[in-house]
Amino acid sequence: MKKINVRAVAAIGMLVAIHIVLSRFCSINTWNMKIGFTFVPVFAAACLFGPVTAAIVGGLGDFLGAILFPIGPYFPGFTLNCALTGVLFGLLLHRQQSLPRVIAATILNQFGLSLFVTTLWISILYGSPYWANLVSRIPQCIILSVLEVVVMFALSKAFSYQSRLFRITHGGMSHDR
After folding, report:
1. 33 with 140: CB under 8 angstroms?
2. Is 176 part of a structural domain of the chain?
3. Total tally of structural domains belonging to the chain
4. How far apart are the first and last CA of the chain?
5. Is residue 175 in a domain?
6. Residue 55 belongs to a domain with what CATH number?
């Protein structure tokens, strides 16, 4: 049985809370588009803890945000996308956050999950035409792709620096994850 690390649980709780705040209060929302920094806590969870924890942060953050601070009707497809974003980020970025990996994660997330799958959920939820929504969401995906690459790569450098600092100040001890 794996030992529960209290610091990790607290960090995950904080990341879920940050996800909710960024998603519900610090994003530009319309009925078919959302531009914001919701990816940041999911990225942090992916880098620090891996794909399962990142999926939990994304999915739980979306679910609790939708229940506590609804923007529209709750739809589980959006929660699934948030969890899948965590899995995707975790698989590509948990141990290595190089620029090519950040770009790959962003392209798969924005042009795979967001553009095609989220557009499907919007079409189902609102009864709007899929292809018209898809075309109208392309600018959002382009803007968010650039934003995600810049922010995630900068944060990956900060995580790398923090990791080296931790090893220096703790006599070569590794993180307890």
Report:
1. yes
2. no
3. 1
4. 14
5. no
6. 1.10.1760.20
Give the position of tokens 């968010």: 144
The three-class DSSP label of residue 74 is: coil
- The per-residue pLDDT for range 44-68, each reduced to its tens digit, is 999 989 999 999 999 999 999 999 9
Low-confidence spans in the chain with pLDDT less than 70: 1-4, 31, 161-177
Neighbour-count burial for 119-156, b at 16+ CB within 10 Å, e otherwise: bebbbebeeeeeeebbeebeebbeebbebbbebbbebb
Whole-model pTM: value is 0.87
Exposed e or buried b per residue across 57-81, where buried means at least 16 C-beta atoms within 10 angstroms of its C-beta: bbbbbbbbbbeeeeeeeeeeebbbb
Whole-number Å distance between alpha carbons of 177 and 73: 36
26 closest CA partner among 34, 16, 36: 36
Q: Which domain holds residue 165?
A: 6-169
Do 54 and 86 contact (CB within 8 A), yes or no?
A: yes
Residue 64 in domain: yes
Joined together, the tokens standing for residue 143 give: 């803007």
| Residue 41: both structure tokens together | 């806590």
